[in-house]
Amino acid sequence: MPLPTLHELYVKLFTTEDKFNFHKTLGIFCLLHFAFRFAQVGERDMGFTSSKATLVCIAVHTLLSVSSLIFKIPYKRIASGYRIWPEYRLHSIVFALRSLSMMLLIWVEKYYDMQPQHHWNAVIVICTLALADLSSWYVGPNGRSNTIREVEAPPMMRYAFSVMQFHATMGVMLGVRRFSTQFIYVWIVQLNAFLMTLRRKNLAPHMGLLCTYGFMLAFGFVVCSHEASTIGAFVMVNTLANTAAVLRLGFRTPKYLLWAGMAALTHVARKTVEEVPMPPLPTPRAWWKFWAKAPAVPLEPSAEPFPYWPALYAASVVGVLCVGYVKISVANEYDKLKAKEAKELKESNRASMEPSGPSCATRAG
């Protein structure tokens, strides 16, 4: 599709529903804020500190998600899938608040010099599940849809997207005490909602936006894996995430039972990795000095690593691949069946439109 003009962008994005441009102002601020923070990926934790400025940033992103409720959008999901609809909008708010709540928890611990309160990680995850279910109940059965499974995309892409959701949830469950880990999730959720809005207004192509979302998930996975590796938990957290994906996607384990069990496993597994002291957050400094680096702090392991994590990780990867093979094969067969039915229906409609009697030329002869 051709690129939209600036006038077309303005007309379709600046609507009368947001009379005072409140949501759009927040959106522009958040886009600039994402760029500012991503320029500081690494040991400086994207420049976040235990200052009041971090608290303000959390509040602004919260307002951005909540203020999206002012817009009227189609009640049911469009067939092509990658367009925002009411159920997904509510889910987007819930999952953005999940990571923003984790950021707030980290801020409280840093500000008041507290030890990590890891039990709140599980509370936030379980509450998120409950709120997501409440959102689906609120929109009613006619407005419900499976976000990933019903998107118009190749089966392999859909499966990869589904697995990444489990890695994101395990990232929250583990709860590395770094703001950047959770801020990446906020970026993915909020920017994806904007991409869906662009698609709904026909300002961007379907597959291009899907590929952009895939890149965002991959980038988030790399950043969060790096953050987990700073406490020696890279293999552990990915093993548990893969295990959760296999249990849910392969064996249909009830999600509340699954994540309650993963919370218990994470509590035990956290003690088996190398627990290294995290570098202290950089002291607040003038905002224009964002290039300055925090002083390096030597990291010394304080616990013996669990020797079986690599083997368990390899087994979990094999499990994800096996479940994926089955899921993708079934999805391919289903897509072929749908294509065949659509072709037969098209031929049937074409045949019904053809005249049943002799043609004009036959009658004239």
> What is the total tally of β strands?
0
Class by alpha and beta content? mainly alpha
Give Rg in angstroms. Answer: 24 Å
Shape annotation: globular
| CA(first)-CA(last) distance | 49 Å
List the total number of helices.
12
**Main sheet makeup:** none
Low-pLDDT stretches are 296-300
Succession of helices and strands: HHHHHHHHHHHH
Q: Helicity level, as a percent range?
A: 55-70%
Query: What is the percentage of strand-forming residues?
Result: under 5%
Mean pLDDT: 86
Q: How do you describe this structure in short?
A:
With 365 residues, the protein is mostly helical. The protein contains 12 helices and no strands.
What does this 3D model show about the protein?
It is built from twelve helices and no strands. The chain has 365 residues and is mainly alpha-helical. α6 runs antiparallel to α11 (309-353). Helices cover 65% and strands 0% of the residues. It has helices at residues 6-13, 22-38, 52-67, 86-111, 119-139, 155-174, 179-200, 206-229, 234-251, 255-269, 309-353, 360-364. The longest helix has 45 residues, at 309-353.
